[in-house]
C-alpha cells in the first residue's frame, strides 16, 4: 500500500491527465449516445480499455521494484503484445467516413479525443518501461529498445487494422498469425502496405515519444 501511495504521489500529474482524458472521452461518447440513440462508436470504449492495459502493466512494474527476472520480463512480453492497441485508436478515424453527415465533425472530435488518450497511454507507459530497464540493462540495449518498440507497435497496427488480428490471437491462432508476420519479411515487395504502415507509423511514434521526453525534461528544468 505504501508503494502505491508513493507511486500516486510521484505520478499524480500523469494520472490526473489520463483520468481527465478518459472521463472526457466517455462523457462525449455518452452525449452522442443521448443525442443519436446510436451505439455507432461504442467500440471506442473497448479500444481505450485495451490501450490502458500496457499502462497498468508498466505501472505495476514501476511499483514492484523487486520483481523477479521471470515476472519482469514475462510482463514485458505481455506489455509489448498489448502496446500497439494504444496508438491503434488513431486508425479508428476511418470510421468518420461512415458517420451521419450531420455528426461527422462531432464524431471526428470524439474519435480524435480517444486517439489522443491512447497516445498518452502509449507515451507514459513507454517512458515507464524505458525508465525501468535503464537501470537494469546496458545503454545499447535500452537504445535498441527505444527504437524497436515504435516500429514493432507500427507493425502491430498493420496486423490489427488491415489483417484484423488481435493481441490474444497469439494464443488462439498462433500459426496463422506467425505466417502473416513472416510474410512481409520474406517477401517485402509483395507486401508494400505492411512496410508503408510500419515505417510511417514507426517514425511517427518514435517522434512522438522523443517530443514527450523533451517536454518532460524541459518542464523539470523550470523552477517550481
Question: What report would you give on this structure?
Answer:
The chain has one domain (2-221). With 224 residues, the chain is an all-alpha fold. 78% of the residues lie in helices and 0% in strands. Helix 2 (12-36) runs antiparallel to helix 6 and helix 3 (43-63) packs antiparallel against helix 4 (69-82).
CA radius of gyration: 19 Å
Low-confidence stretches: none
**Proportion of strand residues:** under 5%
Average per-residue pLDDT, rounded, comes to: 93
Helix count equals 10
Q: From the helix content, strand content and strand pairing, which structural class follows?
A: mainly alpha
In whole angstroms, the N-to-C terminal distance is: 28 Å
Q: How many structural units, i.e. domains?
A: 1
Shape: globular
How many beta-strand elements? 0
Largest sheet properties: none
Provide the succession of SSEs: HHHHHHHHHH
Determine the fraction of residues in helical runs and give it as a percent range: over 70%
How is this structure best summarized?
By secondary structure, the chain is mainly alpha-helical.
Layout of strands and helices, then pairs:
Layout: H1 2-10, H2 12-36, H3 43-63, H4 69-82, H5 85-88, H6 104-134, H7 139-161, H8 169-172, H9 174-186, H10 192-221
Helix pairs in contact: 2-6, 3-4, 3-6, 7-10
Key descriptive features of the protein:
224 residues, mainly alpha, 10 helices, globular
